[in-house]
Specification:
Layout lengths: L4 E7 L10 E6 L5 E5 L5 E5 L10 E6 L4 E2 L1 E5 L5 E3 L2 E2 L1 E2 L2 H17 L10 E2 L4 H7 L3 E4 L3 E9 L5 E13 L2 H17 L1 H6 L2 E6 L3 E7 L2 E16 L2
Parallel strand pairs: 1-8, 1-9, 11-12
Antiparallel strand pairs: 1-4, 2-3, 2-5, 5-7, 6-10, 12-14, 13-14, 14-17, 15-17, 16-17
Length: 233
């Protein structure tokens, strides 16, 4: 078989070249792929002859790893190769954490699975208590586990991502009712979370605490929850 060279330049949104970036060149129909790494000028090059593709085969070039995401698909022709430049965008942990937080916040704040209070925030402070009173729900920014990182056959990556939800109330009974409501809404809204790549959730063992503020007792319930977050980077 004759060689078929796929090559191109990888750049970011500012048109700067992306060096040392792993690229995957995939035979869409057959599922086989080859890996190439961009050089100092952001150029990758790979001969896909060993994939056994032919004219009219669909080929996808995808950026993998390093926090950069981007891809392009073309149809192989009868020539000796294809130049396929790729523009990628950086999608780091800060972006992942922010989007995951917004997904859980939007589930509990709006729509069919909204809880009975709209006092949902990302951090607790005394001004918040004085301004809005109780109950207050705090969804802390999640933690992302980058150590246990796997790549499945679909070239998606899964990370463990953990949230801590804190429920503040001036009554222990009402606090428990709200905690149960939150868990129920997450469970019944799991399809919404799945569509937004938060999958296989697991409620971990919670906890309870309290403190005094002047003449009132503030009860705090903890709801730890873990997801598998699926992404393309």
């Amino acid at each position: 078989m004759a060689s078929y060279i796929v090559t191109g330049t990888v750049t970011d949104g500012d048109s700067a070249v992306v060096a040392s970036q792993d690229m995957r060149v995939i035979d869409v129909s057959g599922g086989g792929f080859l890996v190439a790494t961009t050089n100092g000028s952001g150029v990758y090059s790979v001969d896909i002859d060993s994939l056994g593709t032919s004219s009219d085969s669909s080929i996808t070039v995808r950026s993998t790893g390093g926090g950069y995401i981007g891809e392009a698909t073309f149809v192989q022709d009868a020539s000796a190769g294809k130049t396929q430049d790729i523009t990628v965008r950086f999608f780091g942990n800060a972006t992942i954490r922010h989007q995951a937080w917004l997904t859980l916040y939007n589930l509990l704040q709006t729509g069919d699975f909204a809880i009975s209070t709209d006092n949902i925030h990302s951090a607790m402070n005394d001004k918040l208590v004085k301004k809005i009173g109780f109950p207050i729900v705090i969804i802390e920014p999640p933690k992302v586990d980058n150590i246990r990182l796997t790549i499945n056959d679909g070239d998606a990556r899964s990370r463990n991502i953990s949230f801590m939800i804190r429920v503040y109330h001036n009554g222990s009974k009402n606090m428990k009712i709200l905690m149960d409501e939150i868990e129920d809404k997450i469970y019944t809204g799991r399809d919404v979370l799945t569509r937004n790549r938060l999958r296989r959730f697991e409620f971990l063992e919670g906890d309870y605490d309290f403190y005094t503020d002047g003449d009132q007792t503030i009860h705090v319930g903890l709801i730890p929850i873990k997801f598998k977050l699926i992404s393309d980077i």
